[in-house]
Structure formats: C-alpha cells, structure tokens
Design goal:
The complex is a heterotrimer of chains A (about 260), B (about 280) and C (about 325).
Chain A lengths: L4 H24 L11 H13 L8 H32 L1 H14 L8 H8 L3 H26 L2 H9 L4 H37 L8 H10 L3 H29 L4
Helix pairs in contact in A: 2-10, 3-4, 3-6, 3-8, 3-9, 5-6, 6-8, 8-9, 8-10, 9-10
Chain B lengths: L2 E10 L8 E11 L4 E5 L6 H9 L6 E6 L2 E2 L7 E4 L11 H11 L4 H14 L15 H14 L4 E5 L7 H18 L2 E6 L2 H7 L2 E5 L6 E6 L11 H29 L14 H6 L1
Parallel strand pairs in B: 3-8, 3-9, 6-7, 7-8
Antiparallel strand pairs in B: 1-2, 1-4, 4-5, 9-10
Helix pairs in contact in B: 2-3, 2-4, 3-4, 4-5, 6-7
Chain C lengths: L1 H16 L7 E8 L6 H8 L2 H4 L2 E9 L2 H9 L5 E5 H9 L5 E10 L1 E6 L14 E4 L5 H12 L8 E4 L2 H9 L5 E5 L2 H7 L3 E6 H4 L4 E8 H6 L1 H20 L1 H12 L3 H8 L2 E2 L6 H13 L8 H8 L12
Parallel strand pairs in C: 1-2, 1-3, 6-7, 6-8
Antiparallel strand pairs in C: 3-10, 4-10, 4-11, 5-8, 5-9
Helix pairs in contact in C: 1-11, 2-11, 2-12, 5-14, 8-13, 12-13, 14-15
The chains are: A mainly alpha (about 260), B alpha/beta (about 280), C alpha/beta (about 325).
Chain lengths: ~260, ~280, ~325
C-alpha cells in the first residue's frame, strides 16, 4: 500500500519460514519423533503425493478441494438466502424479534456437529448432510449480524426514505439491506470461517462422493500417514486463509463509501 | 400551498406513577403559500416534536395539521423534511442520493438523472455528482439534502435547524442559497431554529414558542424586503424584541424544574436565587 | 476340533515353559467397539484368565477403527491390543507406531452384504455400484479388492466409500449404498434385522484368511517378555474356551456388543477363532497394501521383520 509495501508480505512470512526451518532441524535431530510430527520436508512430499497419486490413490487433491468448497458455498449461500431476509425483517420488527429470538437463543448454542446424527438420518450421508450442517453453522452469524446491522441504522435515514415515498419493499432493498451490509459482511466472514471448520469435521463422518478435505484427512489417518495428515491440515488452512482474504477484498470494494 | 397548524397538543407518558408531561400545549400558526415561517424557541421546548407531527412522523394528541384542504395523517411526498443531522444514504453518491425520491416515485433513470443534476445546480453543487459523502463537507451535505428534498417538488418544506451544526460563515452562505432556491421554487417553508439572527434573516414571519408546555407566545411579521441587511436597523430592532422574549422564556423553563425536582417542600420561599418570574410561573 | 487339539497342545507347552513370573504385571488393553473378532479379550477379562496368569489387565481404550488404536500405540497409551492385521501392518510399514504382532485373534468373519431385496447375486454385479468399507487399509478394504479382482472387475469399476460400521446398516437400508463389507456382528446384524443378505462371506473370498491379531507395543514386546508370555497364555486359553463353551461365549459376546443373542450366535458361526500367526498371509497383506499405494515401506521382508514378534505364536519364526 504505502512505502515498503513490496516488502511487507515477505517480512510477514519470515517468522513462518524461520519456524519451519527450526521444525525441520528438530525433526532431523530426532528431538521431534517423526511419527508424532513429521518434518516439513516430509509434509511437502506427502502433499506432492496427494497431487500426483491422490489420497486414497486415484482421488486427487484438486477433487477434494472442489468438493469441500462446493459444500461450504452451498451451505453459506443457503444461510445468506434465509438469514439476510429474515434478519432484515427482524431488525425492523420488534414483534418478529420477540417471536423468533427464543428459538435463536435455544438453537444457536448447539454446535453444528451435534446435528450430524440427525442430519444423516434426515438427509443421508451425501452432500445434503454436509450442506445442512454448514448451513446451521453459517446461519446464525449472518442472521444476528444483519439484525444488529439494521438496528444500528440511524432512525433518521429510515424516516427520510419514508418521507420521500419509499414503499416497504424499497425501504428493505434500498435502505435497510445496504445499511446493514457492513454488519452482514462481518457475519458472512464469520459464517465462512465457521462453515469451513464445521465442514472438515462433518466430512470425518463419511461422504458419499468419496471426495472432501476432511474425508482426505480421515483417509490419511486410516492409512496412518502423519505427513499427509499434516499436509491436509495445511491445505485446509491455506484455503481458509485465501477465502478470508477474498472476502476482505470484496468488503473493501463493496464498502468503499466508508 | 398553505399550511395550517391548529391547536396541536402532544404529551409523553410519565414514568412511575407520574401523570405524564405535556410537551405541546396547543400550538397554532399558519404558513401562507410560498411563505417562510421561522419557528423560534428555547432549546428543548418541543420544536422538533412539532415538526415531526407536521411531517406526519408522529401523531398529535389533539388538534390537526392541514396543507391546502388536506389533513395530514401520515408522511406524504408533498411535505419535505430536512434535519440537522444528515439523513443522506452514505453508500450512495451525491447524485444518486438526490435521485432517491425520484426512484421511489418511479421516474425513469434518464429523467431522474436530469432532474437531480438540475437540483444540484440549483444548490450550487454542479460537478459533485460522483462524490461520496465522506469526501464532502458538512455544508455541502446539507446542500445535497436540500437538493434531494426539492427533487420531488414538495409543496411544503420542513427544516429542523438544518444549519445549526455549521460554522457561521457557511451558515450564512447556505441561508443565501436557500433564499435563492426558494425564490425559484416558491415552496412553503417552516424553518425551526434557536438562532434569532437566522430567524429574522430568513423568515417572512417569526413564530416564538413559550417554554413547556409549548404554545405560540409571540408571532411577528418581518416586513423587510429582500435582500436584507443582516445588521440593518430593522432587523436589529426585531432581534432585540425577540431576544427579550426568549430570555424571559429561558428563566421560566430554568426555574420551573428546579422548583419541582430539587427543592424540598416548604423550602421554596426562602431559597436563594428566587426570582420574581418564578412567582409568576406558579 | 482338530484346531482345538493344536490349541490345547500349545497351551500345555506354554504352561510348562512360562514361569509364573508375571505376578502383579499390569497391561493396558485396547480393542475395537462391538467387534466380535475380539471376543477372546472379553472372555479373558470375564473369566479371569488374565488374572490367573498374574496379570492386571486394564481396558484403556475402546476404538472405532484399527488406525485409531494404532495412534494409541504410538502415544504409548496402550500396551497390548486386538486389531486388524491390515491396519497394524500399515502402521508398522509407515512407521506410525512400533507394534509386534504375537498371535492371531481370529480368521475369517467378514462378509459382503447387499440389501435383502437386492437383485445383486454375485460380486460381478457390483460394477457401477457404491460399496462401503469401514476404512482404508482395513482388512475389509483388502478383502473387497480381492473379491473384485477375482470377479474380474477393475479397480475403478466399483465406487468405494468409507462408512463407519454402526452407520452401514442404516445407509444400506436407505439405499445410500448398494453394499457394504464389515466385520461381525455387523454383517449378521443386517441379516437378522431383515435389511441385508450376505452376498459373499469372507471365507469364500480367501478361505482361512487371517483377520485380527494380538499386538504388543514395541517396547513392551522387547522389555517385558514375561508379561507378553502370560498374556498370550491367557489369550490361548480364552480362545480354547470360546471353542469349547459356545453358550458362555455367546453370553459374553452379547454383553460386550450390546446386540441380540440371535445375531451374536449366528455371527459367531462365521468367525474362526485361532491363535497361530503365519508368515505367508502377512506377506500377502503387505504386498497388497504396497500395490494400493497405502504404505511407504514396500519390502515385505523388512515389514515382516518389524511386524512379527519372534517370541509370539508364530509358525516358522525364522524369516
């Protein structure tokens, strides 16, 4: 951004690289046993193997990434489709809030993963279950942030629009929705984070397509390859990081007016 | 279009057994078609409540508001409203803010763009179309708010201390812009202010409010042709008269709550700072 | 009953050879949840056979999969465990944990199951279908691949997915999978529940195939020979007991699996309980795991050296 921007990223990476070298050295010296935590070099070769041979052999890394991303997006999009309209309505109507809030307060503290057995019962072991579980994790942050976003809009803005002749629909689309957008985006960021974390654990219980990063890690455990378990975790971390960076970029674009 | 305020009363429910408080105690005045009425009063006397009732945002307990031959019962496009705090939409540009009311009215995009541009020109903001609100000053924002209100061609424009947050120089400039605009649009205006200079400079008539429960305590016509000299003898004389009235009201409103809230029963007579006005207020 | 005679003979041999030196030794035991293959462990506990050898055996872990149990070995959370040959060979070959297999727990005892009303009649019919296995590099994974190969199906012809055994029957019932291969009593449970039909028992995939083993954590096998011998003696005695006392074995099986008596009784008939390890099948597991790309160490002889405990019940202990 400003001066030195070109060096900012490499500088941020420096501690990571240093930690990696230290980790490698500890591994080579036998201080960290390989079967507990394999050194980075082994992790990287395990990663390469997931790309070339696949894990289980034949199921390549890209396929796992695509399957997981599809599930997360499906769940988050569903959460947006329900959470935003409901959040806007709840933000505007005290009556609706008092009707829905008890359910929200009751259901929200239940970890999404606690729904796994029910989800499998209702939707089977396919993508439906995973999407449903991610939906549950993503829904509440989006809903609650949107409600808070609407309530934080100054009353004057809403009244001015009403005086200028806004219909109910126009008020929602042109005042409440864009007014709540900053809060909603925060909700989406949280939702994607929660969704991503939930996904991996949800995939541990089995998926029908045989693809998914959680499933891949479970496979690495089945065949007892610690290097590939760590490599899988690394991939999940990197994708999560990339998604958050993407959202922040979108946020900067959408909220340029701030 | 003529605006009439007739015997408007408004109270707020009291807390814990208190009978409640009457804010507006029967306010009546009229603004003739195309006229500018300045409502002047001590702060906290319920000017904003009055304006909100006229705008249709709140209901009067008693009395009524009419424009032309229609009774105001809710918000309507014929009545524009500008407040001290900006109510522009921060995510929209200057131009699209001005277009907002036209969008709600279903005006075609090309036409509303043209209208909005014309209104921005009118308030001397031509060339600021694509600016975001964070990029312009407070005075410019109030000009945008004025342009937005005018774009839908209201018959009555309500202004609630629109220039109060601005510095004196900007305020004067905006007052002149406003007068210039109104010359063209002939909109009826009710302009609430606590600033006597502003009231006598802008108003065809100045309506002075009493302390709570608020009524019209004094109503004077400003028979000074425009352009007016802010420091001329006519305005100065008027200013003097109005300031005296306001000072009196301030005393009333300051002592009344003291007597009610702080003084123990029976101690009122001997307390220091007791003024002749207080006895009269009882 | 020929097997029983062999067993009793080896039992007598141990009784003579092993001194009662295991007095007060403590061993932490692991086994798999509801896996009837591990019945000898439960019998040993219930009938006090471990105690009779002077061992204090404490159940330190009940696992859902062999790979999980191998993790427990790696963290030295258990000293001895019953688990599948495939996951234990995999763990040793991938250096995930050091364990020594010292005895067999059972042979056979798995089956491919399809829906009761399924039109599938033979393994060849599974082409294009979805088949669930309990885990990669499990005995059942191995058996399924072997069955498919024998039926002339290519590796990609069948969609193989992982479903944990308790969920398999539900998944089969709701048609999310077309077939599964699981250890007993899950295969039989599907049948007695009216959901499934056995397409092929594992005894027909590979007659007499070894399945689960008794394995000791590497340092235990090396440093505590007396405890190992005492445990093996109790294990052999428990195995002989199962063969001689079906009724009591069924009762203990019901107690530990939580399943109904009918299922356990039927399932027991599909499992061959014997204790002697052989080298050739281990080699076969190792070469299969290598071929599927599951293991890093692909020299079967090296794996055998690492994996088999020469002091255990191994036929022909020399390489």
């Amino acid at each position: 951004m400003v001066s030195g921007g070109r060096w900012r990223f490499p500088l941020q990476l420096a501690p990571l690289v240093a930690a990696g070298l230290l980790w490698e050295a500890f591994g080579a010296a036998g201080i960290i046993p390989e079967n507990r935590l394999p050194p980075p070099s082994h992790v990287l070769s395990g990663l390469a193997e997931m790309v070339t041979r696949g894990l289980p052999p034949g199921s390549h890394l890209l396929g796992h990434c695509v399957a997981s991303l599809r599930r997360v997006l499906g769940g988050v999009v569903a959460a947006l489709a329900v959470g935003i309209p409901l959040g806007l309505l709840m933000g505007r109507s005290a009556w609706l809030r008092s009707l829905v809030n008890p359910f929200v307060e009751l259901l929200r503290p239940i970890p999404p993963l606690a729904w796994v057995p029910l989800a499998i019962l209702w939707l089977g072991i396919g993508d439906g279950s995973a999407v449903f579980i991610i939906f549950l994790g993503a829904f509440f942050p989006i809903l609650l942030n949107t409600v808070a976003g609407v309530r934080a809009i100054e009353r004057g803005l809403i009244e001015a629009a009403i005086i200028l002749g806004a219909s109910r629909r126009e008020l929602f689309l042109k005042v409440l929705a864009p007014g709540a957008l900053p809060a909603t985006i925060t909700g989406v960021r949280i939702a994607i984070g929660v969704g991503w974390m939930t996904l991996v654990a949800a995939e541990f219980t089995g998926v029908k397509s045989g693809y998914g990063l959680g499933y891949m890690i479970m496979t690495a455990r089945d065949i007892q390859r610690a290097d590939q378990i760590v490599a899988g975790m690394l991939v999940i971390g990197l994708i999560g990081f990339a998604m958050d960076a993407l959202i922040r970029a979108a946020e900067r674009r959408l909220l340029r007016w701030r | 279009m003529e605006l009439r305020v007739e015997g408007v009363e408004k109270g707020f429910p009291g807390t814990s057994g208190d009978a409640g408080r009457l804010i507006l105690g029967g306010v009546s005045f009229a603004a003739p078609d195309g006229g500018i009425v300045c409502v002047l009063g001590p702060s906290g006397c319920g000017k904003t409540t009055l304006l909100r009732i006229i705008a249709g945002l709140e209901r009067a307990d008693r009395g009524r508001v009419t424009i032309g031959d229609r009774v105001v019962s809710g918000t309507m496009r014929e009545i524009g409203y500008i407040t001290q705090e900006t109510t522009l939409l921060p995510w929209r540009t200057v131009l699209s803010n001005v277009e907002l009311g036209l969008e709600f009215a279903g005006v075609s995009p090309a036409q509303r763009r043209a209208t909005a541009r014309r209104c921005l020109e009118l308030v001397e903001l031509a060339g600021f179309d694509g600016y975001h609100l964070k990029q312009i000053s407070g005075g410019m924002k109030q000009k945008v708010a004025l342009a937005r209100a005018l774009a839908v061609e209201p018959r009555v424009l309500l202004m609630d201390e629109p220039f109060a947050a601005l510095d004196a120089q900007t305020r004067n400039a905006l007052q002149e812009v406003l007068l210039h605009v109104l010359e063209r649009t002939r909109t009826t205006v009710v302009f609430v202010t606590h600033n006597v200079d502003e009231a006598v400079f802008l108003g065809d008539r100045v309506v002075c409010m009493t302390a709570q429960p608020t009524r019209v305590g004094k109503s004077v016509e400003v028979r000074v042709p425009r352009p007016r000299d802010r420091t001329g003898p006519e305005l100065n004389a008027l200013r003097k008269e109005l300031l005296a009235f306001l000072a009196e009201q301030r005393l009333n409103s300051r002592t009344a709550p003291v007597e009610a809230d702080l003084q123990p029963p029976g101690a009122a007579a001997g307390s220091p700072g007791t003024l002749p006005n207080e006895a009269r207020a009882k | 009953m020929n097997r029983a005679v062999v067993l009793l003979l080896s039992l007598a041999l141990f009784a003579a050879a092993a001194p009662a030196a295991a007095a007060g030794e403590k061993l932490r035991l692991g086994y798999l949840r509801s896996d009837l293959h591990h019945l000898a462990a439960w019998v040993g506990i219930e009938k006090g056979f471990f105690r009779d050898e002077g061992l204090e055996v404490e159940t330190a872990g009940i696992f859902n999969a062999g790979a999980e149990e191998m993790s427990a070995f790696a963290s030295k959370g258990i000293d001895v465990g019953y688990l599948g040959m495939a996951p234990s060979v995999t763990g040793v070959a991938n250096r995930a944990a050091s364990v020594k297999a010292a005895a067999l727990a059972n042979a056979e005892g798995s089956a491919i199951v399809v829906r009761a009303d399924s039109p599938l009649r033979q393994v060849k019919d599974l082409a294009g279908k979805t088949v669930a296995i309990p885990g990669y590099a499990s005995v059942q994974d191995f058996l399924l691949h072997r069955a498919l190969e024998a039926a002339g199906l290519a590796a990609g012809a069948v969609k193989i997915i992982v479903v944990k055994p308790p969920e398999m029957i539900t998944a089969l019932e709701s048609s999310q999978i077309d077939a599964f291969i699981a250890w007993e009593p899950h295969a039989t449970k599907a049948v007695t529940k009216g959901v499934g039909r056995v397409l092929l028992p594992s005894s027909q995939i590979w007659p007499g195939h070894p399945c689960c083993v008794v394995a000791f954590e590497g340092s235990v096998a090396r440093d505590r020979p007396a405890a190992v011998q005492a445990f093996l003696k109790a294990h052999a005695r428990a195995t002989a007991f199962i063969l001689a006392n079906t009724e009591e074995a069924v009762r203990i099986g019901v107690q530990y699996t939580g399943m109904d008596e009918k299922t356990v009784r039927a399932a027991l008939g599909n499992i061959t309980y014997r204790t002697e390890l052989e080298r050739a099948p281990v080699r076969e597991y190792a070469s299969y795991l290598a071929r599927l790309g599951y293991i890093k160490e692909t020299d079967p002889d090296a794996i055998l050296r690492e994996y088999l405990d020469p002091a255990g019940l191994v036929k022909d202990a020399r390489p």
